[in-house]
Amino acid sequence: MMNNGDKIKVICEIPIFEDLKGKSQALETISSSLTQRSFPVGSLILEEGVVGEEFYILTSGKVQVLKKTIEGEPYVVAVMNADKHPIAFGEGGLLDGEARTATIKALAPCETLVLSGDSFKKFAVEQPNWALPVLMKLIKRVMGKLKQSNHDLSLLYSALVSEIRNG
């Protein structure tokens, strides 16, 4: 079981929290809100299409990111390993509690730290000066993903139009 000091070290390695470095009270507040959760091999940490309000930090283990085709068949998008540094995912759950956009599956036993959306919202209301830089990083990250999705859709549309014209 991780103590708060260990949790703080992990938090400081996560880009969305980098502006909290040196703000010990903010780091203590976030670290005390984190819960530890273990996942055995083969378990789903997140599931595409299922509503979730939690943010995960993978502190050990290996996971794969899966998406579904239009037909509902899963395909691997990425494999992430926390051997060298922690990996964060599920940040959208802190903002909106919407359906997950990908599935995260454990390929090895995984240890995570979990921040609930409710805990983060409480932090944001009680400490807006600390929460604002974190929210700005979250928004920037989500906007980056949206821009990439728009780019991908544009490429697919162009390929489809080209195929139809040359068909």
Task: Compile the SSE list and pairings.
Layout: H1 4-11, H2 24-33, E1 35-39, E2 44-46, E3 54-60, E4 62-68, E5 74-81, E6 87-89, H3 92-95, E7 103-106, E8 110-116, H4 117-126, H5 128-166
Antiparallel strand pairs: 1-8, 2-7, 3-6, 3-8, 4-5, 4-7
Helix pairs in contact: 1-2, 4-5
Describe the overall structure:
- The protein has 167 residues and is α+β, with helices and mostly antiparallel strands.
- It has one domain (4-166): Jelly Rolls (Sandwich).
- Helices cover 43% and strands 26% of the residues.
- It has five helices and eight strands.
- It has helices at 4-11, 24-33, 92-95, 117-126, 128-166; strands at residues 35-39, 44-46, 54-60, 62-68, 74-81, 87-89, 103-106, 110-116.
- Strand 4 (62-68) and strand 5 form a beta hairpin.
- Helix 4 (117-126) crosses helix 5 (128-166).
- The termini are far apart.
- Radius of gyration from the alpha-carbon trace, in angstroms: 18 Å
Task: Order the strands across the largest sheet as they lie in space.
Answer: 1-8-3-6
Coarse shape: globular
Mean pLDDT: 90
Q: Helix/strand-derived class?
A: alpha+beta
Number of strands: 8
CATH class: Mainly Beta
* CATH topology descriptor: Jelly Rolls
Count of helix runs: 5
Q: Give the name of the CATH architecture.
A: Sandwich
CATH H-level superfamily title? Jelly Rolls
Count of all domains: 1
Helix content: 40-55%
Q: Tell me about the biggest sheet?
A: 4 strands, antiparallel
Measure the end-to-end span. 60 Å
SSE order, one letter for each helix or strand:
HHEEEEEEHEEHH
Report low-confidence residues grouped into runs of 5 or more.
none
